[in-house]
Structure formats: structure tokens, C-alpha cells
From TrEMBL:
PROSITE patterns: COX2, COX2_CUA. One of its GO terms (cellular component) is cell envelope. It comes from the Bacteria. Coiled coil: none annotated. Residues 66-168 form the Cytochrome oxidase subunit II copper A binding domain. The chain crosses the membrane at residues 12-34. Keywords: Copper, Membrane, Metal-binding, Transmembrane, Transmembrane helix. This is Cytochrome c oxidase subunit II. GO terms for molecular function: copper ion binding; cytochrome-c oxidase activity. Gene3D superfamilies: Cupredoxins - blue copper proteins (2.60.40.420).
């Protein structure tokens, strides 16, 4: 079988471009800390309000014994709950998400925080937010007519400011 030289060149160029794209994606994932979800944990979306972990009083950031923060949030048409929260910079954060109804996506622009939230599963993402400031938390998966209004706000403050805001009653740093 004879393959024309021009066809060989175009085939090589096409495979080279595809290889370049794969290399860029892999390099970007490795250097920007982007990882596929590996925490497969199921939950009954219809009974979230009865679960201990995702009960209304347990939503938002909570300090772990190791000094990190676990942030529990619920996504539902058309909002993230809690609607606003304050988090410390330069701290290991573990976001745990569940959906009340349909597939949602969550993304914090200018960070590596992005994942899909599938009903019946707990989505978990670990990250560190390095810069203080206000960040929008957006739904990036079309979830219905109110999708454009599905957002929340994350305020990132210094560790010391966060500690001052979250110290137990009767405790002082003096």
C-alpha cells in the first residue's frame, strides 16, 4: 500500500498538534494543582436536611483539629447555601458540596476551585486560597431558568483576621 508524501506530512502535523494539546493539558493540570475528583461518597439528596453533616447548622466553614478548614455547602435551584462566607487565606480548605436537585457546577474565578456537583454524591475539592479579597462563587453548569442568578460570595481574609472573627466566646489573644 502506497501513502502519498503529502498525506504523511499532514497526518504527522495533525498527530503533532493533538500531542501538543495533550502535553499542554497535562502540564497545566500538574503545575496548577488540578486533579480529577477521587472522593466517591454517596448521599440521599432528598434527605439532606436530616443528615448530620449537611444540616443547616453545620453549613459553612468549620475548623478541623489539624488547623485546616472544612467548608460544607449545599447547591439547589437557584442558590448556594450559605449565600456568603468568610475564609482564611493560606489555609488548607476542603470544600464538601451536595446538590438538592440537579447537576450544578461550582467555580471560583482566579483560583483552581472548580467541580461538578451531582445529586446523590458528595463532591470534595481541596485547595488553598492565597490572595485576600472578595470572590464570586458561580454555578458553571446550566441548571434551569434561574441559573444566571445562582451565585454566592466568598470573602478571603488573613489568617489572623479570620482567627479573631472565629475565636470562642471568652477567649482573648492577649
Amino acid at each position: 500500500m502506497h501513502i502519498d508524501q503529502l498525506e504523511k506530512k499532514w497526518a504527522s502535523i495533525s498527530l503533532g498538534i493533538a500531542g501538543l494539546f495533550v502535553a499542554v493539558i497535562l502540564t497545566s493540570a500538574l503545575f496548577h494543582g488540578i486533579h480529577a475528583p477521587s472522593n466517591v461518597e454517596t448521599i440521599d439528596s432528598a434527605r439532606l436536611h436530616l443528615s448530620e453533616e449537611f444540616a443547616e447548622d453545620n453549613l459553612g466553614p468549620q475548623r478541623n483539629p489539624d488547623g485546616g478548614i472544612t467548608v460544607r455547602m449545599v447547591a439547589g435551584r437557584y442558590g448556594f447555601y450559605p449565600k456568603t462566607m468568610t475564609l482564611p487565606a493560606e489555609t488548607n480548605l476542603t470544600f464538601r458540596w451536595v446538590s438538592l436537585d440537579v447537576i450544578h457546577g461550582v467555580h471560583i474565578p482566579m483560583t483552581n476551585m472548580s467541580t461538578m456537583i451531582v445529586p446523590g454524591y458528595v463532591a470534595q475539592v481541596k485547595t488553598v486560597l492565597h490572595h485576600t479579597g472578595d470572590y464570586p462563587l458561580l454555578c458553571n453548569e446550566y441548571c434551569g431558568m434561574g441559573h444566571a442568578h445562582m451565585w454566592s460570595n466568598v470573602k478571603v481574609v488573613t489568617k489572623s483576621d479570620w482567627d479573631d472573627m472565629n475565636k470562642p466566646a471568652g477567649v482573648s489573644h492577649e
